[in-house]
From TrEMBL:
UniProt-listed Enzyme Commission number(s): 2.1.1.-
Enzyme class, spelled out: transferase
Keyword line: Methyltransferase, Transferase
Domain Methyltransferase type per the UniProt entry, residue ranges: 59-107
Keyword rRNA-binding listed: no
Stated name of the protein: Class I SAM-dependent methyltransferase
Length: 235
């Protein structure tokens, strides 16, 4: 995935995702935020939570066995982490465990029901040539993922698709098709090459006043993990 993100289509997709996540996390408040995977995406740079970690750089751990207490995080970001996971279900269950009630989850995923996904699948069937998208990963459909989230008591509060240009390899050809972005988002929005989902963890019977009290108490101590937190100062 890292090598592919250096290609023209990879840079195009990463720029769209960076814009989406910058806007989404800027006004999400709390104390503890975690990004799992894809260090090329600076997913927490606009967030103001005092404790922010990137797994793989700030702490080393298995994504399905996180070194955090249950209900201790306010935000978890999964940029393509589910489609690259050995067990996407196990990863989602672990994220649900460490998130507080009313905590936020943000997911980016490649859309198999897109022109980019179609080209990838045709390449696999023909078994020739270099695949357009990264070889690794099991791309998870948007509606399939929403069903998984619902089963884990997540409520989707924002979702969108993006990246509508055809699956072309060069920057010049991608630039020529820039006009299709507005057309695609208006006329066939669910066919974008990538989707963004923001969900909130719901707990029946939980009252917001109790949440506020618990979060104030949590501010007095961070989750018990050993890591280098030198860059987590507020910007």
């Amino acid at each position: 995935m890292a090598a592919w993100l250096q290609t023209p289509p990879g840079r195009y997709l990463l720029a769209w995702e960076q814009a989406q996540v910058d806007a989404a996390v800027a006004d999400l408040f709390g104390f503890h935020a975690l990004q799992l995977g894809l260090p090329e995406l600076n997913g927490l740079q606009t967030n103001r939570m005092p404790h922010r970690w990137l797994a793989g750089r700030d702490l080393q751990c298995d994504f399905d066995a996180l070194p955090f207490e249950s209900a201790s995080l306010d935000l978890v970001l999964l940029p393509h982490s589910l489609e690259l996971a050995c067990d996407a279900h196990a990863l989602l269950r672990e994220v649900e465990r460490v998130l507080r009630p009313e905590g936020r989850l943000i997911v980016f995923g490649l859309n198999p029901a897109s022109l980019w996904g179609l080209r990838q699948n045709l390449g696999r069937l023909k078994r020739r040539g270099e695949p357009y998208l990264p070889r690794d990963g099991d791309f998870i459909g948007y509606w399939r993922l929403r069903d998984w989230l619902k089963l884990l008591s997540f409520e989707v509060e924002a979702a969108r698709f993006g990246v509508y240009r055809p699956p072309l390899r060069t920057e010049a050809w991608l630039d020529r098709w820039q006009w299709v972005e507005g057309v695609g988002s208006r006329w066939w929005p669910v066919l974008g090459a990538v989707y963004f989902i923001q969900a909130v963890k719901r707990v029946q019977g939980m009252r917001m006043i109790g949440l506020a009290r618990n979060q104030r108490a949590a501010a007095k101590k961070a989750p018990a993990v050993a890591l280098n937190n030198h860059h987590n100062k507020e910007e």
